[in-house]
Amino acid sequence: SSAPPRVTSVHPEPGSVVAARRVLPTLTLSQPLAEEKIGADTIRMLGSKSGLVPGAATVHRGLLRFEPSRDLVSGETVTVTVRAQGVVNPDGVRLESDFSWSFQVAE
């Protein structure tokens, strides 16, 4: 379809507190994505104490996931930002704008 992809849900929930130190932020989108458009900088994960979290973005149909290569720090706020130019459907239509949300890591 020519409608842009939309984010329909995210994990972890915005504003939630997670106990795990290794969290894989996941977005569910309204339509499948073009895997070849996902770049190294499509998803940015930033910890308020630990800084930029390295890792890799993966896509499977309409699921977009970030797999961090290190643990988070207890008590920090983590902000995940998805850059619209990397979230593109097979027709070449991209997410309308960058999308971000935050969650906290338990103490």
- What is the mean pLDDT? 95
How many helical elements?
0
Give the beta-strand count.
9
Largest sheet: 5 strands, mixed
Bulk shape: elongated
The fraction of residues assigned to DSSP E strands is 35-45%
Secondary-structure element order, N to C: EEEEEEEEE
> Strand arrangement, largest sheet?
2-9-8-4-5
Measured as a percent range, the helix fraction is under 10%
Distance between the first and last residues' Cα? 44 Å
Indicate the low-confidence ranges by residue numbers. Answer: none
- Helical/strand content category: mainly beta
Query: What is the C-alpha radius of gyration, as a whole number of Å?
Result: 14 Å
Please describe what this structure looks like.
The chain is mainly beta. Helices cover 0% and strands 41% of the residues. It has no helices and nine strands. It has strands at 7-11, 17-18, 26-29, 43-47, 51-53, 55-60, 63-68, 77-82, 99-105. Strands 2-9-8-4-5 form a five-stranded mixed sheet, with no helix packed on it. Strands 1-3-7-6 form a four-stranded antiparallel sheet, with no helix packed on it. Strand 4 and strand 5 (51-53) form a beta hairpin. It is elongated and about 45 Å long. It starts with 6 loop residues before the first strand and ends with a strand.
Short summary:
This protein is an all-beta fold. The chain has no helices and 9 strands.
Features:
five-stranded mixed sheet; mainly beta; 9 strands; 0% helix; four-stranded antiparallel sheet; 107 residues
Structural topology:
Elements: E1 7-11, E2 17-18, E3 26-29, E4 43-47, E5 51-53, E6 55-60, E7 63-68, E8 77-82, E9 99-105
Parallel strand pairs: 2-9
Antiparallel strand pairs: 1-3, 3-7, 4-5, 4-8, 6-7, 8-9
